[in-house]
Structure to design on (137 residues):
């Protein structure tokens, strides 16, 4: 099992008042030892900004400081991934679809990841190049 963790899943895990907090923790602790867990540098960028806005600077820095201890593999968005993401973004005229989501879709396709952990509905509607099970949505 190769699991990609999205911004909203990390946020739900990190923010006790998030409506998905309990479910996010349950899902994460069920799957983290069943496979290899991935995220991206763009997801972390989006997450630090979101945590800062929702929970304050301390929470964002705390996540930043503890991420290295998680064992999660950080995938870098390369020029090739950005090119794929730009094509995805241009193709989908969908409100609230972020460019970061598009980079995540491109990474999931490129690395043939078979699970995505997200509460974001965009992950459910996107047609991946292969079978991807969405956890959370």
């Amino acid at each position: 099992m190769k699991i990609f963790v999205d911004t909203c899943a990390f946020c739900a895990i990190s923010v006790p008042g998030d409506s998905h907090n309990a479910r996010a923790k349950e899902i994460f602790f069920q799957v983290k030892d069943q496979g290899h867990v991935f995220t991206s540098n763009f997801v972390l960028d989006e997450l630090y900004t979101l945590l800062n806005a929702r929970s304050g600077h301390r929470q964002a820095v705390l996540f930043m400081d503890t991420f290295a201890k998680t064992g999660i593999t950080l995938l870098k968005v390369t020029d090739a991934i950005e090119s794929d993401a730009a094509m995805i973004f241009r193709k989908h005229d969908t409100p609230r679809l972020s460019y970061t989501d598009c980079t995540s879709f491109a990474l999931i396709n490129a690395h043939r990841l078979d699970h995505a952990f997200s509460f974001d509905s965009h992950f459910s509607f996107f047609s991946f190049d292969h079978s991807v099970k969405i956890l959370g949505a």
In short: Helices lie at 7-14, 21-31, 41-55, 57-67, 79-91, 99-110, 122-125. The CA atoms of residues 5 and 117 lie 5 Å apart.
